[in-house]
Amino acid sequence: MSYNFGATNESLFFQTLFLDRDGVINERLPGDYVAHWEEFQFTPRALEALAFFSTYFHRIVVVTNQQGIGKGKMSVGQLEQIHEKMVSEIQQSGGRIDAVYYCPDLSNTPNNCRKPASGMALMAQNEFPEIDFQQSVMVGDSVSDIEFGQNLGMATVLIEGKMDEIDKLEHALRNGLRIDQCFASLWEFAAELMKTPPR
Questions:
Q1: Strands 16-19, 59-65: pairing kind
Q2: What pLDDT is attached to residue 9?
Q3: Which of 92, 113, 102 shows the shortest CA–CA distance to 62?
Q4: Which of 26, 73, 111, 148 is deepest in the core (most CB within 10 A)?
Q5: What confidence tens digit (pLDDT) does each residue in 156-198 have?
Q6: What strands lie across the sheet with 155-159, from one edge to the other?
Q7: Which helix (H) or strand (E) segment is 148 a member of?
Q8: What InterPro entries would the database entry show (predicted)?
């Protein structure tokens, strides 16, 4: 299934927005982890995009892999403090985040909760039983984000710019990965949705 977000289609409406964090909401730190609030920088016009999303989606959920905890680069307390301040800044700008879920596991941990595994989405659905993955969209900048959304039947949006994943992305596309839309930034995705008013 493929979605055209700009099409005039009254039957098209996504109730829940799933968002990756690094590279989508905030800038990545090349080769490192955002371990302190002072290192956290919103991507251009992300706050405006999130303010718009709060009028468009019933639920907005952040799902983020944070193996910096597993590597000892930061503590759970540090990460949660970053998220508290992130949510506060978003609220002050007129937006909202309904929940933030993170996975601290290392990528080589057996049965870990990292995307593309579905654990964080199922946690969200447990907290908000009205979430229907078929009426949800996943926005991320990594192959694992797109696989996460595709595995659950969500629409998928790739935020371009993660240059170190180009080869991995091309390989995944050859093997059935589906990307419904690509945008240069979270703001550009919001601008496209503005053409399709919510019901």
A1: parallel
A2: 40
A3: 102
A4: 148
A5: 999 997 656 677 777 777 777 889 999 999 999 999 999 877 6
A6: 99-103, 59-65, 16-19, 136-140, 155-159, 181-183
A7: helix 143-151
A8: HAD-like_sf (IPR036412), HAD-SF_hydro_IIIA (IPR006549), HAD_sf (IPR023214), Heptose_bisP_phosphatase (IPR004446), Histidinol-phos (IPR006543)
Relative to beta strand 59-65, strand 99-103 is parallel
The answer to whether 102 and 64 are in contact (CB under 8 A) is yes
Confidence of residue 8 (pLDDT cuts 50, 70, 90): very low
Which is nearest to 156 in space by CA: 167, 173, 165, 164?
173
Mean pLDDT of the chain: 90
Q: Fold for 16-193, please state it.
A: Rossmann fold (3.40.50)
Q: CA 174, CA 186: separation in Å to the nearest integer? A: 25
Residue 138: which of 117, 155, 115 has the closest Cα?
A: 155
Task: Single out the residue of 195, 186, 192, 190 nearest to residue 160, CA to CA.
Answer: 186
Cβ neighbours around 32 below 10 Å, total? 10
Cross-strand bridge partners of residue 62: 19, 100
Rounded to whole angstroms, the Cα distance separating 31 from 48 reads 28
Residue 136 has pLDDT above 70, yes or no: yes
Q: Catalytic positions, please? A: 20, 22
Mean pLDDT value across residues 14-38:
96
